Amino acid sequence: MSTEDLSLSSQKNVPVLLVTGFFGAGKTTLVKELIKSTTKKIGIVENDLAEINIDGKILSLTPGNVEIVSNVCICCSKGLHVSEAIDKLLTNQPDIEYIIIESTGLANPKNITDNLYAANIKHGLKVVGICCVVDAKNYFNHSKIKEQNQQIIYSDTIIVSKLDLVKDDQHISDINKSLLQLNPTASVKAVING
User: What is the count of structural domains for the chain?
Assistant: First the structure.
């Protein structure tokens, strides 16, 4: 093992938060709010399958360093794209204190955390949480979609967004029951207006 290998493996553990959620759930809004609520230097990996990455452009306007991975899902790419994005973030801004990865609406969070292996070895990352954003208004329209359910199952925190668009208390209660059936150990939190 070379001295370069030793220095790479001895770097500090950079905390990483993975934010998942089905399309339109409010992931980008959550990431913007997280950035605004901290004084830490944040690095963002924005993954979008769209040809024109609007979310990445929105996040680029925030006070964080953004790497955009477009037209490929980071959960399916064997770790190459997410590792490259993190490498660019930490090479260009070595003082980044925290990384937020916003996945596509179809991403499997388990595959993403598995794919962080190469970046973890090089930069000493530490996944501190997987957060799934769930759209309260459209939750049951998506409840049979495998990808949304995987995101819920592998999360340790579930954010139920857009509660201001739901007026039925029974609907909200049914969402909470469904979420706890899929993931009884997750912390479930509700947000209004992002």
Answer: 1
Return the CATH number at 163: 3.40.50.300
The pLDDT tens digits of the residues spanning 87-137 come to 888 888 888 899 999 998 988 998 888 878 767 767 788 889 999 999 999
Q: Is residue 2 part of a domain?
A: no
Specify the pTM.
0.85
Determine whether 27 is exposed, middle or buried from the number of CB atoms within 10 Å of its CB (0-12, 13-18, 19+).
buried
Nearest alpha carbon to residue 136 among 165, 158, 170, 169? 165
Q: What does pLDDT average to over the chain?
A: 82
Say which residues have a Cβ less than 8 Å from residue 180's Cβ, sequence separation at least 6: 186, 188
Q: Give the range of the structural domain holding residue 155, as residue numbers without chain letter.
A: 8-190
Instruction: Name the maximum alpha-carbon separation found in the chain.
Output: 62
